[in-house]
Design goal:
By secondary structure, this protein is α/β, with parallel strands linked by helices. 35% of the residues lie in helices and 12% in strands. It is built from 15 helices and 14 strands. The structure holds iron/sulfur cluster.
Length: 474
C-alpha cells in the first residue's frame, strides 16, 4: 500500500521530509517542484542520502559486471539526440552475427561477469527467429548469464516487424514477449524512457513509441514475471516539471505493478537511472544553448519550463522557441535531479549513479545524493559514446571509487542480490599495488583505443577488457 501524501504541508519543513525518508509519506509533484527550486543543493543531497541509507544501510554500495552489447545500429527511428543510429544502406551500418555476439559474452564470462545488457536500434530486417535463436544459443552456451535485453521501443517495433496477433497493444506485446522469454530473455532494460511528456517526446524521439506504449510494455513484462528498470534522459529541451511528471508516471506504474502482479510472482521496476543528454554528433546538440546568442533574453524563463506541466499536458505552442533551445545539465543539476528521484520514487529500491555521462568523480558524489549503485564496469557501449562521452572504468577502479566515497563495494546481480562483498584484502581494488597505470587520464578513452589493464598491458589482463567506449547501464 502506497504511503499517503500531504499536499497541504510545506515540503521544506523537515517534519514532512523526515516521514518521506522513513517511507511514511510520499511527496506530491508540486512539492517536488518546490524542493527542486527552493532547497539548497547540499540539503537536498542530505535528505536523499538519508533516504538511501534508510533503504540500503550505511555500508554497502553496489556495482554489476555486465556487458553492453549493441547488436545492431540499424534503426527505423530518428531520435534527434542519437548519434548511433544508421540507415540499413549506410556503409557503417552493422548487425552482429551470432559468433561475434558469443565472443563478447565469452569475454564477459572470463572476467566473472553475470549479465549482458543487449539493446539495439530497431532493425526491420531481423525476423523473430533471429532473436529467439540468438537467445536460445546464448542460454545453451552460457546458462548462468542473465539476459537483460530489448528496451520498450524495440518491443513496440517488434510487434510491427513480426506482425504480432492480438486485439490490443497489450495482447500483441504479450505475444512477442512470451516468445522471447521462452527463448531465454530474463528481464527488460529501461532504455528509451527519455522524457515521457508528449510535447518533448514528439520533438526528440522521432519514430519512437510514446509514453503510454513504453509504460505498457514494462507492465506486460511485469505481468509475465520479468523485472525491468526505468530511465530518464534530461538536460535538453524539457522543463523541470517534465522531469517530475516523468518520476510520477514511473511511481504510478510501479504502484500498479506491485498491486496487480506481485502476489502472483510478477515483476517490477528494480531500478531507476537518470542521466544528462550528451550533445556531440547529434542533431539536437546543434540547438543553441538557452541564453547564449542573439535574441535570447536570459532573464526570461527557459522555453521548456514555459511549456512543461506537472501533469504532462504541456503544448509546444506555448513558447515559439520550444524545442529550438537546449539547457544542458550541469553537475549540480544532475545531482539535484538524482537526489529528487531518490526522494520521489519511494517504491523503487535502487537509484543508479551515472558516472558514464558525468564522470567517475561526480559518480562518487552521486553516492551521497541518493544513489546506491554505480552500474557496471561495462566492456562496451556504442550509444552514449557515439554522442561524445567516453569515460570507462574497470572493476578495481570502480571498487576504489566506491570505497573512497566511504562505502564497501559489493558486486551484485540483476536482482540486486549481493554476490561478493569486498571487505577484505583480496578485494579487486586492494590488490592493486601500483595505481600509476590507472591514473585519471586513463579514465577518458577515445573510441577505438584500448583500456589499460592493471599491469599496463592493453587488454592483456582478463580483469580489464578492451573498452570500445563507455556506456550507460540501464
Ligand atoms: S536512440 Fe535508439 S531508437 Fe532512437 S534513433 Fe537511436 S538507436 Fe534508434
Amino acid at each position: 500500500m502506497a504511503s499517503p501524501t500531504h499536499p497541504q504541508l510545506n515540503i521544506l519543513d523537515s517534519a514532512l521530509l523526515r516521514d518521506i525518508v522513513t517511507g511514511e509519506a510520499r511527496m506530491t509533484p508540486k512539492q517536488a517542484l518546490t524542493l527542486y527550486h527552493d532547497m539548497p543543493i547540499q540539503d537536498l543531497g542530505r535528505w536523499a542520502d538519508a533516504r538511501c541509507r534508510f533503504v540500503h544501510g550505511e555500508h554497502i554500495r553496489t556495482y554489476i559486471l555486465d556487458r553492453n552489447i549493441n547488436y545492431t545500429n540499424v534503426c527505423t527511428a530518428k531520435c534527434t539526440f542519437c548519434a548511433f543510429r544508421r540507415d540499413g544502406h549506410e556503409t557503417d551500418a552493422y548487425t552482429l552475427d551470432y559468433e561475434a555476439l558469443l565472443e563478447k559474452i565469452a569475454d564477459l564470462v572470463n572476467i566473472g561477469g553475470t549479465q549482458i545488457l543487449m539493446q539495439g536500434g530497431m532493425n526491420p530486417d531481423l525476423p523473430l527467429s533471429w532473436y529467439t535463436e540468438l537467445l536460445q544459443t546464448i542460454k545453451d552456451r552460457y546458462p548462468a548469464v542473465h539476459i537483460h535485453a530489448f528496451s520498450p521501443p524495440e518491443f513496440i517495433e517488434f510487434i510491427k516487424f513480426f506482425d504480432a496477433p492480438g486485439n490490443s497493444l497489450r495482447e500483441k506485446l504479450k505475444w512477442v514477449m512470451m516468445r522471447l522469454k521462452e527463448a531465454g530473455l530474463d528481464s527488460v532494460p529501461g532504455g528509451g524512457g527519455e522524457i515521457f511528456a508528449d510535447a518533448v517526446r514528439r520533438k526528440i524521439g522521432l519514430g519512437k513509441c510514446d509514453a503510454e506504449a513504453w509504460l505498457t510494455t514494462m507492465s506486460v513484462a511485469h505481468e509475465l514475471g520479468m523485472n525491468t528498470s526505468a530511465t530518464m534522459m534530461f538536460g535538453h529541451i524539457e522543463g523541470i516539471a517534465d522531469r517530475i511528471h516523468h518520476f510520477d508516471l514511473v511511481r504510478q506504474w510501479q504502484d500498479r505493478a506491485i498491486e496487480d502482479f506481485a502476489a502472483d510472482g510478477g515483476g517490477r521496476y528494480k531500478a531507476f537511472i537518470s542521466w544528462p543528454f550528451q550533445r556531440e554528433n547529434t542533431p539536437l546538440g546543434r540547438c543553441r544553448e538557452w541564453g547564449r546568442g542573439e535574441g535570447d533574453d536570459f532573464s526570461e524563463p527557459f522555453p521548456g519550463d514555459v511549456v512543461a506541466k506537472l501533469d504532462g499536458s504541456g503544448d509546444k505552442s506555448d513558447h515559439p522557441e520550444f524545442g529550438r533551445r537546449v539547457r544542458m545539465a550541469s553537475a549540480s543539476d544532475y545531482l539535484r535531479t538524482q537526489a529528487l528521484s531518490r526522494l520521489y520514487l519511494d517504491n523503487i529500491r535502487s537509484i543508479g549513479a551515472s558516472w558514464v555521462t558525468m564522470g567517475p568523480n561526480i559518480g562518487q558524489i552521486a553516492l551521497h545524493y541518493g544513489a546506491n549503485d554505480m552500474g557496471s564496469v561495462m566492456m562496451e557501449e556504442n550509444v552514449v559514446s557515439a554522442a561524445g562521452t567516453t569515460y570507462c572504468l574497470n572493476e578495481p577502479m570502480l571498487c576504489r571509487l566506491i570505497r573512497d566515497s566511504g562505502f564497501v563495494p559489493a558486486q551484485r546481480n540483476n536482482e540486486y542480490n549481493l554476490l561478493k562483498i569486498h571487505d577484505d584484502a583480496d578485494s579487486p581494488d586492494l590488490i592493486i599495488d601500483d595505481w600509476s597505470t590507472l591514473r585519471a587520464d586513463h579514465l577518458h578513452v577515445e573510441k577505438g583505443e584500448e583500456a589499460v589493464s592493471p599491469d599496463g598491458d592493453p587488454g592483456g589482463d582478463p580483469v580489464v577488457v578492451t573498452i570500445e567506449s563507455a556506456t550507460q547501464n540501464t
